[in-house]
Amino acid sequence: MAKNRASRPLALVAFALAAGCGGKPTPVARVEIEPRVVSLLPAQAQTLHLTWRPSASLEGAEPTVFIHLLDAQRKVIRTFDHPFPQRWREGTPVSYDVKLYQSALAPPLAPGKYPLTLGLYGEKGKRWPLEGLGEPGTRFEYEAGTVEVPAQPPHVHFVFSSNWLPVEPGGDRQVLARRWMREQAAIRLLRQREAGTVWLVLQIPPTDSPDAKVTLEPGASAPAVQVAGSCGGAETNLTGQGYHEVELPMDLPTAESFCRVQLRANFTVQPPLGRPRSVSLENLAWIPDGGRKAPNSAAPETAAPADPKAGQ
Question: Can you tell me the distance from the alpha carbon of 74 to that of 114, in angstroms, rounded to the nearest whole number?
Fold first, then answer.
């Protein structure tokens, strides 16, 4: 009898270990996404709403959310990765919006339907299991939705003034292309048929880089950029190195006019090779918003000729 009593706890431990090794991994959060189908024209951005409900500890890790756009061969062609926006706390829901976009600086996607996937990862590529989006694919990558690219031209066309340098590669699938400007420049909006928002991501370079000389205007203490919209009076000032996301509301222009974004920097950067520059435009897109109040009820398809030197 003593022998049987001693063997039972050992058998239970062995069973528990086997179940832990071969069982289904415990999700660390439930994820909800709205909408699951997004229509995305070239040079346009749309909003994806995410709600996270953390249910397990990440043991102090600072996670990053990955969102991948795939082609028909399941190859990643666009990424919308971002740090989890708040401290991870079990039992504390977190909701926020993410931009899905086709940057006006990059080649447009071909018309069609593209799968969108999502996951959560930490240092050294560690990924965590989730729930709410169905069964995971390889390495806890979940189906998040579909992006549909219609077979029609974009509603808004961006024209750059001559103070912009040529487009150059961005270096990854989050920023496919970028464009540097000099001290001041403008971007004109053509074919604007409704009120909406111009979305930009700008980068102010570091001032302590050994590879480039940064010169500030007299009286300036830090590099800064002023960004203003001509339709509606929206204006913002960006200060300090790093990435800055800007949304400029734009009313519908009058029939004889057009809208534009005007940018002015208080510094110049002289790289070892190439022309002087200031700030780089990393992404650019139009967010449609038919509910915005407009000064007139209609605008022509093309409000002004596409003169790249206009609006300086």
Answer: 9
Q: Report the 10 Å Cβ neighbour count for 2.
A: 6
H helix or E strand, kind and range, residue 17? helix 2-22
Considering the entire predicted model, what is its pTM? 0.83
CB 221 within 8 A of CB 311: no
In words, the CATH class of domain 157-288 is mainly beta
Q: What's the token pair of residue 163?
A: 């103070």
Number of H helices, E strands in the chain: 1, 21
The 3-state DSSP composition of the chain as helix, strand, coil percent (nearest 5) reads 10, 45, 50
> Mind giving me the DSSP string for 205-257?
PPTT-TTSEEEEPTT-SS-EEEEEESSS--EEEEESSEEEEEEEEEPPPPTT-
Q: List the domain boundaries for the chain.
A: 29-149, 157-288
In this structure, of 70-74, 146-150, 304-308, the range with the lowest mean pLDDT score is 304-308
How far apart are the C-alpha atoms of 297 and 252, rounded to whole Å?
A: 8
Q: Quick check: 306 pLDDT over 60?
A: no
Q: Look up residue 148 and give its two tokens.
A: 């549909």
- Residue 44, amino acid: Q
For domain 29-149, which architecture applies?
Sandwich (2.60)
Between 164 and 301, the higher pLDDT residue: 164
- In this structure, the number of other CB atoms found within 10 A of the CB of residue 125 comes to 7
The answer to whether residues 200 and 187 touch, using CB atoms and an 8 Å cutoff, is no
- The yes-or-no verdict on residue 298 having pLDDT over 70 is no
Average pLDDT over residues 162-181: 96
**Degrees (nearest 5) of the Cα angle 56, 57, 60?**
160
